[in-house]
Specification:
alpha/beta, 148 residues
């Protein structure tokens, strides 16, 4: 199950990504927003991050105009590794090397087609483990020291 959410600036792109997920029979839960009416993106990012944190969903996608604000908020949650991605290669390595569990997209900087390609790569790529495990353990240790 994928969590998906956007603010008003990412709403149109979110709706296009949902069409792609529907076509591929990928289950998702939409955490809003549900229109182009202005909303505060931290509330959406919080809801998506908490759904992953609680294991209600496995991974997630957040969309705002740049992808940056959403990723900043999401990364405030223990266990969340949110990565803003602007191309397929970054999406691939965010999963392979960092075991990212939350993708952030910037609707103002990528086309719908680019977004779909990024989402496809992100969802298809597995974490490769190995030498990266030690680094993820370091991240977890930092979280344990600095987050409640």
């Amino acid at each position: 199950m994928i969590a998906i959410g956007s603010d008003h600036g990412g709403y149109k792109l979110k709706e296009e990504i949902k069409k792609y997920l529907d076509e591929k029979d990928i289950e998702y839960k939409d955490f809003g927003t549900y229109s182009e009416e202005s909303v505060d993106y931290p509330e959406i990012a919080k809801a998506v991050a908490k759904s992953i944190q609680s294991k209600e969903t496995e991974k997630g996608i957040l969309i705002c105009r740049s992808g940056i604000g959403m990723s900043i908020v999401a990364n405030k949650y223990k266990g969340i590794r949110c990565t803003p991605c602007y191309n397929e290669e970054i999406a691939k390595y965010s999963r392979m090397h960092n075991n990212s569990n939350l993708l952030a997209l910037g609707a103002d900087y990528i086309s719908t087609n680019e977004a779909i390609c990024i989402v496809r790569m992100y969802l298809a790529t597995e974490y490769e483990g190995g030498r990266h495990d030690a680094r993820l353990k370091m991240i977890e240790q930092i979280e344990n020291e600095n987050m409640k």
